[in-house]
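Q: Sequence in, structure out?
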Amino acid sequence: MAVDDVSFQLSSGEIVAFLGVNGAGKSTTIKIMTGVLGADSGQVSVFGHDIVADAIEAKKHIGYLPEDNPLYGDMYVKEYLGYVASIYNLNDRKNAVESVIERVGLRKEYKKKIQSLSKGNRQRVGLGQALIHNPGFLILDEPTSGLDPHQQNEIHEILSELGKTRIILFSSHNLHQTISVCNRYIIINNGKIVFDEKAKNVDSIEDIFNKVTNS
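A: Exactly. Output:
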């Protein structure tokens, strides 16, 4: 069993750290939440829409950045974002692309091919494709993995601003990459939720994380 009776609710304005060691069940849970993977039982509701029974409507509210951030390297940044906008059938694709380029800080990079970008700027492109349709729920699987501290801080600044008006689920096996930006912690271990608390109510999330993941 990959995940076992996992249940939680998320609210607008929350930037939630979804934590656990590698293999704890984070990515499986996320794939179920986004409709990529079917669950044997249970239900996922996104702004009142069931991810299975009402998949198209549910996914309109979800922006998803997978851990491996699959991008078309031979496409230009602006071209790729326009392509993603066309998948969502947006009415004003040009303005949507321009807006997201500005929002994620790709103004100097949008004329370049994706394969020529740094790791940090490829993550920005991945974040841009997740935001292009202005979703209310942003799911990020290891969004700062492999980035240097400066790049991590830049992504955190973007997420802090985005989190004021939407729900963000920030999945990571690295607690320290989430501390400066998240206001709630959910920890999964061996497929079960073992901790769920607001950041303001936690004295030392590091001690709790180490205790529950080593148990």
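The chain has two domains: 1-61+135-215, 71-134.
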